[in-house]
Amino acid sequence: MVNHPHRKKSTEDDPMEQLSSAIAEMLTECLASGEFKAPLYIVAIGGNGTTQAYRGAESSGTGLDMSMLAEHDDDGQGFRLPINLFVTDNTGKAARMLIEQTNKHEMQILH
Questions:
Q1: Among 35, 36, 67, 73, which has the highest number of CB atoms less than 10 A from its own CB?
Q2: What's the whole-model pTM score?
Q3: Inter-CA distances, 40 with 46, 106, 107, Å
Q4: Residue 60 CB: number of other CB atoms within 10 A?
Q5: Could you report the per-residue pLDDT of 95-104, keeping only the tens digit for each?
Q6: Kind of pairing, strands 51-58 and 64-72?
Q7: Radius of gyration of the CA atoms of the chain, in A
């Protein structure tokens, strides 16, 4: 489970909702694979240049606590598709996910 403090209520078609869901899914898959160790570092970059960076640290039995490290939004419009997500840990293991359209994304662990 990922505790995401910046999650807001919205519709399935909202890129921010898709981003929150994709981050949660990606972090769950990374940790479940056994190849990644917390803390995890996550960067999201939208097609319009909007960028956010997070650190996911282990918390006492509730998953990861997310802390925002950086944020940039040139046009004030938030994330626009496509959105690239990157995850890495302290060992250098990395994964990438691309969200190209509504509710459609694929994760790739990089070797």
A1: 36
A2: 0.77
A3: 20, 19, 16
A4: 6
A5: 998 888 766 6
A6: antiparallel
A7: 13
Q: What are the CB-based long-range contacts (under 8 Å, 24+) for 11-19?
A: 12/102, 12/103, 13/102, 15/46, 15/78, 15/79, 15/80, 15/81, 15/83, 15/99, 16/78, 16/79, 18/83, 18/99, 18/102, 18/103, 18/105, 19/44, 19/79, 19/83, 19/85, 19/99
The tens digit of pLDDT for each residue in 8-61 reads 444 456 777 777 888 888 888 898 999 999 999 999 999 999 999 999 998 876
Q: CA neighbours within 13 Å on the CB side: how many for 57?
A: 5
How many CA atoms, within 13 angstroms, populate the side-chain half-sphere of residue 72?
11
